[in-house]
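Subject: mismatched residue count in predicted assembly?

I count 896 residues in my input, but I want to confirm that the predicted structure covers every chain. Input:
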Amino acid sequence: MVEQREQHAPVLETVAGTKRFVGTLALDDVSFQLRPGEVHALVGENGAGKSTLIKVLTGVYQLDGGELRHRGEPVSFGRPVDAQRAGISTIYQEVNLIPLRSIAANVFLGREPTRFGLVDRARMHREAAELLREYGIHSDVRQPLGSLGVGAQQMVALARAVHTNETTMSGEGAGAAQVVIMDEPTSSLEPREVETLFEVIERLHRKGIAILYVSHRLDELYRICDRVTVLRDGRLVHTGDLADLRRIELVSMMLGRDVSDIRRHGSTTFGDTDHAVVEEGRSEPVLQAQNLVSTPKVRDVSIDIHPGEVVGLAGLLGAGRSETARAILGALPLDSGTVVLGGRKLPSGNVGAATRAGISMLAEDRKLDGIVPHLSIRENIVLASLPRLSRFGVVSRTRQDEVVKTFMERLRIKASSPDQKVVELSGGNQQKVLLARWLCTQPKVLLLDEPTRGIDIGAKAEVQALIDELASDGLGVLLVSSELDELVDGSDRVVVLRDGEVAGELSGDEVTRDAILDAIAGDQQEASA
Amino acid sequence: MSAPTPASSPATDPESGSTPRPDADPVDGATPAPTEPAEPTGPASSPQVRQQLFASLLQRQGAAAALILVLAISWVTLPRFGSTENMRDIALQSSFLAIIALGMTFVIITGGIDLSVGSVYALGGVLAAYGAQSGVLMALLLPLAVCGAIGLVNGLLVARLGLPPFIVTLASLLFARGLLLAITSEGSKTRTISDSSFLSLGRDSFLGLGLPVWFAIVLCLIGGLVLRRTRFGESVFATGGAEQSALLMGLPVVRVKVTVYALSGLLAGFAGALTAAYLQSGVTVIGVGVELDAIAAVVIGGTLLSGGAGTVLGTVVGVLLRNVISNVINQIGGLDSNYQSVISGAFLLLVVVVQRLLSQARPRRRR
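Triage response: the counts match. Full output below for your records.
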């Protein structure tokens, strides 16, 4: 791990770096150092300034105050390409490639091998195929990039970044330390792909390339990182060896809360009590999904949800969790099976009918499926309930204001005003806006697909607390999550899916990490958490 | 229409990559709301991308199939259609539009649009007629310089100031048309050209084809090569495919955009000069609506209106298809010439609708 290289001459650093945006100080006197050959974790909640710092290091933004130094020399990267020429390459959280172009073209864009001034396609395809094989990608490189899954696209981005880096290096010679910056590279990867990524990181590490690794996943950080820098509210609150730091200390620095406080409440903020108040002589289920089949992902799933109950849906990636939720909503057509809500059978494949009957769904990808980024918070919230808020086709502004105000308070949406554009909010607040939108249609059942993915720990806690509250108010909740802790703490009952079928159902005290893992793993399959 | 057209068009495909995405990153609360226009998707879902490219391919093939079909039917049914003279005529008529549409192809692939080309084309013709008074060199240089400059300004405004191309080029459409009217006393002065070496550019033939046709062929070959086989071409696709990503990849997005608009102006001016040489005068009334013909040809030829995919060959097919159809309508005769537009419009719509339906149907079956 932490070798004492003849380091201390940072390959990249900011000295008292300050970056100001309208109204906010995104980076406040941050002196950050990245040493040659280290894997450096950068952590912090959303809004802590991580992305801003990365963008400063990669030439997307320029510092307003302080200095950026590259190998000790003050530099100013005016554009991303300047940073790239200096041997700093970046993989962004969202794949920043061109989906319509071929995989090979994406790897080489801007540095295509040429012959007589023309792009040498044969060579480009050959080299891209060779290169990508090291990253576990064996697809035809002439295919459009967009035909790959998001995880594989991320690997292509990584291959591109590293390759750019290596070629720049050989071009300028002298094995000088280079930098690869990874902004949440694993957020869309499957476990197998994560392993490949770590192998690549290991390889880069051995070559003496410095890696700046941003992630919310503590397990990963502790596994691969040497040092850590913690940002909070634009300030650098800690930097040092990661091994010396206990997890709970790291979390407390990120959150700015007491260690003891976190201990007491655990890492999730679900209440202790289970809310399926009605125990044995339970009430009628509000939603009954019976033998749902929607090929290819959903093969046979039955789920009942009672009022006031949070039913967790567990399973590996690809087990059909999201698809089940979407099938219940009607967004996926059913091949067979029925969805009964409050005693009435819903027509298959009709989202409108399901929504009117009282099912709402918070989709996994809030950017694609929900948020209208350039509309205001108000508009985003009332979007789904306009018919209810209008009379003779005219939308009542007073009633809108009332509803919006109620939900903004209840969900603790942090914004300057209801008229602020949603795109300006943090991920967690965007998620709350979406939640408000569906709550305001007064649903009976709420389907939540990964409601806390990609939002910071603080907001996560609030969303979890909210789910709890909503269930206590009598709402039936289906909680799809890939985080076991969230399921264990948040659900009254957990239905475990495997390959599109119900592999087990746990309730009450049976709901534990291990029990879920056992059910997921089945008889002989390996459990992967 | 005569036959089912195996073709597809997402010309106005609502899915063609323009899913609005929130700008850059809403992750850091501190991010300022950037003012870039909503960009095409980053990691689009795979079926969507496949469908889009498939549609584009189908569209191109479809346009080619439609062209062959129309040619075959007309050849058999219309006695004069297949004559060498008529073929030459179609080629010549197509050459001017092809040169303009070539520039438009580049612009549209970057995700832009150039509405100014019709006016610039007419202006190029008039300027060529002026320049021809001082010889063939001026007859070419004057229109190329002025029209290239208009294109360059378009490009700078679009790329540097981030103004919407629609508005910028609409403004230069008005500007160029106004300039043309001003220097020709409201279009009443048509200057005839007497410089014989300049006239020969538009009127001479080589191997049986008019010189403008050869110009068009050579330019399209070069254009196709540049687009498919150079780094610049790759950057053009990348810019239109996902501009933000292209920027982050360090591609010269601004330079690419400036270049394509300048190129478009330059080519429109050159087409205007050739037209003037062919007509022996700087005709002031031409070029109205030519920008729309060029856009239609580009789109029929399989270039995505949202940018990121397209070919020069497709555009050439689109241009030919359009001119063959209007030639056929002329041949049939007896039709008020105004109906030509009606039929052309209806045909465009039909092609696009059929293509769209096919592009929706096929990928589903393949899955």
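Chain A has 19 helices and 24 strands. Marking this ticket as 'not a bug'.
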